[in-house]
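Need tokens for this chain, all 285 residues.
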Amino acid sequence: MCDLLCALPVSTGGPTLFAKNSDRPPDETQVFELFPIRTDVGVTRVTWVEVEAHPAPTLAVFGSRPTWGWGLEQGVNEAGVAAGNATIYTTLDPRPFPDALTGMDLVRLALERATTAEAAVDVIDELVTRVGQGGSGHGSIRRPYWSSFLVADPVRAFVVETSGPTVAVEEVADVRATSNRTTIPAFDRVHRHPRQPVDARVDPRLEASTCALAARPVTVEALQAHLASHEGGEDGWTVCMHVDLPDHHEATTASMVAELRNGSGPVIHHLVGHPCRAPFQRFEL
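Here are the structure tokens for all 285 residues:
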């Protein structure tokens, strides 16, 4: 589970802001790391498969990942592109598909290869079409999924939603929130999962994020407070997540708010653990 938000300069009066809570199994270790430029050739081994290496040197990237995987839950590159993914389910069952790229792999590959949000969307689209999605998003159990993405840079932002090889893209006008469900209207009408309990476990969080973005100007402090909030559903299904049910264990294990500016490097406010309990740390890339 995850919640993502972005606000373009028209709604902040300053830089583009990108925010995400990464919700994962509570006993899983997640870390923020700086990944320097790579000049390797040949193939890149990602979480479950190999992909052709990018022909040019990669971009430096700062982001968080579960330590068992290669990809990133969320991150920002040196060009000021931010991206994160969320698990979604659709009418297409992901379980029969073979191991391929996870949503986290796609986030890191896009950030390593793209200098704009639009280019990052192109990277995701091309890799989903050519290589495909598949494989577990968890290290200890097999739980495959499809992904949605929120991608932003200092001037533009996009939502990307997928169902197997099908990709839909929507440009953000001013602010946008996403969560663990299909949200692009035309895509949602065709691909929405018919039995996913979004009304109890997703929609209250998505509504809370949308409300948080309605207060102008959108600020770093407001987004940090929102990520730390317990707005949303019952039984711990809140923005800062604390789910401990017999059939499900989920918690916010990393958070990030990024400032994306033209003419200067990004500033990333980040933490590992619950944002309701730990302070954000500042990092300039």
